[in-house]
Amino acid sequence: MDRKREKVSILEANILYLILGILLIFLGGFVQSKEIYTGLLITQYIIIFLPTVLYLKVKGYSLKKVLKLNKISIKQIALVPLIVIFAYPVGAFLNYIFILLLSSFIEIKPLPIPIPESSPEFILGLIVISLSPGICEEILFRGMIMSSYDKLGKKKAIIISSILFGVYHFNLQNLLGPIFLGIVFGLIVYKTDSIYSSMIGHGFNNAIALAIGYFLLEKADNIPTEAIDMPTDFFTNILAIIVGLVFSIICGTISYKLYKALPESEKEAEEVLEEHNSTILDYMPLLGISLLFIFYNYILFFK
Hints:
The chain is mostly helical. Helices cover 72% and strands 0% of the residues.
């Protein structure tokens, strides 16, 4: 196969990203408002997964190479969930800090994620909220998008794809956490040379969030569905920040050590930067998604 068919261009990836962002806001928002679980499945498989895979197939790209559909070892499978378990509190802490800052300007609202109220709903949630995004969103972000930015170097590819991943959640309250976790998933993919590792990590991360919501619901008398009152006492906030920071440093350190212990792929080669002359045209679609992000959050929080 011609080498050019192994790498999607940055412009192609950004155009598809913009189109899928528009579809997510308008079509995804509509179907989710009708019935949340069905809507989420439509969002993941019809709006994200199908267009990405079809585009690659129609354009003649190698799915195996673009998406890094390579085998992973038993040890890698065992270590990835552990890395995510200890990375999760760091992402949650980053979200908390940002929400604390935002609370001075906007009304904080619960994230629009259904919280299971029974064991069957919890199982359904694991399929819809954990497994499906783990597959579909990884195909787009750690697959097509990160692969397209490879030519700029692995670090830039990880950072840019992670920012785009965070923005794709279209919620200021849930921005920094996904960006951080996107970086974790990107690092894991490059080290294992397999998107299956980030699928496992992403699915496991969402399962943790789902389980926390489910078990908190069992303990709590009520879960807020409208606005959330953030603590306003200065010393309470400072104490929460200090405790959260210390806990995040401990968890982050453990997660990093587990990442270092993660076996590298035998196929992984030295990074070779391709010659790429970026133009402003390559990034014009990102201007569109940025405007869409600003507009959507303005409607969500300020109107």
